[in-house]
Design a protein that fits this description.
19% of the residues lie in helices and 43% in strands. It is built from 1 helix and 6 strands, in the order E-E-H-E-E-E-E. The strands form 2 sheets. A 4-stranded antiparallel sheet has the order 3-4-5-6. It has a two-stranded antiparallel sheet with strand order 1-2. A hairpin with a 2-residue loop joins strand 4 (65-72) and strand 5 (75-83).
Length: 96
Amino acid sequence: MKVPEKGCAICQATWGDYWEEIEGQRMFFCCDICAIEFRNMIDEVKKRKGWKTVDEIKMTGNYRGRECTALYQGKKYGFNIRFDSKGGIDLFTERA
């Protein structure tokens, strides 16, 4: 899975030192909450689309909400997502 070259895989923060394996890939996160958010987001996309995995997720936004596009084998899936304070999905809406 393609992730940012520098910083946390979800928020791009460069502080912290939390590593977790997601989708068979060891990824850097600033904290355990960001790792939970990322895993929950990947799982939700796979569940909704029936994909085996996700090749990349492009994101803009912040803790108030993110606009995302998931990519898998040339297919695109647009969605908005917001997380609660423990990393659970608070809001998930599909975009056209």
